[in-house]
Amino acid sequence: MWAYGSGGLEFILVEAEKTEVLSEDLLQVEKRLELVKQVSHSTHKKLTACLQGQQGAEADKRSKKLPLTTLAQCLMEGSAILGDDTLLGKMLKLCGETEDKLAQELIHFELQVERDVIEPLFLLAEVEIPNIQKQRKHLAKLVLDMDSSRTRWQQTSKSSGLSSSLQPAGAKADALREEMEEAANRVEICRVSVPLALLSWDKLGSS
């Protein structure tokens, strides 16, 4: 930065300070959190693909589209055609009833898996962890703004010492100092919420 001093035009070098957004420990937590997100997303995708029933549908709608239900209906229809008095008809009826029971058990199992595993994994990978990462990016932006404000204030403060008209430079320095302090306050507020959010999920990815 150039400024006029008693000896004429002088160059003022102000080294920009770079504030760490997160401590080393929190950076490790952040890496583990990303791994939790990746594993949760992959597991959710695989589990969803394994469902035979329609995801999110009620039990009755799931039952109609299950291959087991279709097979049970086919067996029962065959039994009705042949009649219960025939050996094959009795066998088809028994097999049809068994297949229908298996279909109901499968529906019950998939509903439990969806409620207790698939939905929580989706929330974790697509909502909760991305929200934490969004807060972290916001903190990084606030830190960058704070560092920029500090650098501008330092440059103006040093140049005011060399300026022949101290009043305007001093007023500008005061305004920049106020801007820097406001930026620092915003950083401190965000520094509280982000580590808490990171640490609250750290147990999921740590041993």
From TrEMBL:
Gene3D superfamilies hit by this protein: Arfaptin homology (AH) domain/BAR domain (1.20.1270.60)
Domain BAR: residue ranges: 11-207
Signal found in the keyword field: no
Pfam short name (any one): BAR
This protein's UniProt keywords: GTPase activation
SUPFAM superfamilies linked to this entry: BAR/IMD domain-like
PROSITE patterns the UniProt entry points to: BAR (PS51021)
Keyword tRNA processing: no
GO molecular function, one term: GTPase activator activity
GO biological process annotation, one example: regulation of actin cytoskeleton organization
Any one Gene Ontology cellular component term annotated for this protein: dendritic spine
Name of this protein: Arhgap44 protein
Organism whose genome encodes this protein: Phodopus roborovskii (Roborovski's desert hamster)
